[in-house]
């Protein structure tokens, strides 16, 4: 089955028509080291975006469990998870050059062979580059909460996106979200509970899995007294 034949295509079209993207462009300075990493390491670890399903077994040189992460920021937690799970292949999707450059540096320093990057909007990556029912997991950590009510429609976690996302997960695969914004956590919980193809692994919010490290961003918030909410759902 191709991406265009999948029922989730209609949801992807709806996302595009509503202008929903997995990111918002922000100003940010790319350091010389990150720029060098993009130029020197990018050709090895960045998979170019394509409007066709990618052969990820060929990319990684093996057939293995596969997890995609949307919006890895500066990539610290992503690299730690990949290093701790060498039996799993990870696809990190991010658009911001500083973060992509930083993760390339981490991949090189740790000699990781199970982590690749796509520098593109994750909605389009899921729709075109990921085959249906091919992912074992999907990570979405600290997406933009769009706290103002008039901006809530821009939130990534919406019913259309969730249907697209789970169409790429194998039966028994998992969707793991984390946020430090309680109203967004409540919104995510409501959206995921309403999706008949998902089952919550907890009564409501899940404990942070041991394998998800606390990022610098998260630790800073915890030190300020902010809460963090993890949500882990599996596909039926």
TrEMBL record:
UniProt keyword annotations, A-Z: Methyltransferase, S-adenosyl-L-methionine, Transferase, tRNA processing
PROSITE patterns: SAM_MT_TRMB
Top EC class for this record: transferase
Enzyme Commission (EC) number: 2.1.1.33
GO cellular component terms, A-Z: tRNA methyltransferase complex
Catalytic activity: guanosine(46) in tRNA + S-adenosyl-L-methionine = N(7)-methylguanosine(46) in tRNA + S-adenosyl-L-homocysteine
Residues annotated for S-adenosyl-L-methionine binding in this entry: 69, 94, 121, 144
Metabolic or biological pathway: tRNA modification; N(7)-methylguanine-tRNA biosynthesis
Stored SUPFAM superfamilies: S-adenosyl-L-methionine-dependent methyltransferases
Binding site for substrate: 148, 180
Recorded name of the encoding gene: trmB
Its job: Catalyzes the formation of N(7)-methylguanine at position 46 (m7G46) in tRNA.
Example of a GO MF term: tRNA (guanine(46)-N7)-methyltransferase activity
Pfam families: Methyltransf_4
Signal peptide range: none
Species this chain originates from: Thiomonas arsenitoxydans (strain DSM 22701 / CIP 110005 / 3As)
Protein name: tRNA (guanine-N(7)-)-methyltransferase
InterPro entries: SAM-dependent_MTases_sf, tRNA_(Gua-N-7)_MeTrfase_Trmb, tRNA_methyltr_TrmB_bact
Family membership noted in the UniProt record: Belongs to the class I-like SAM-binding methyltransferase superfamily. TrmB family.
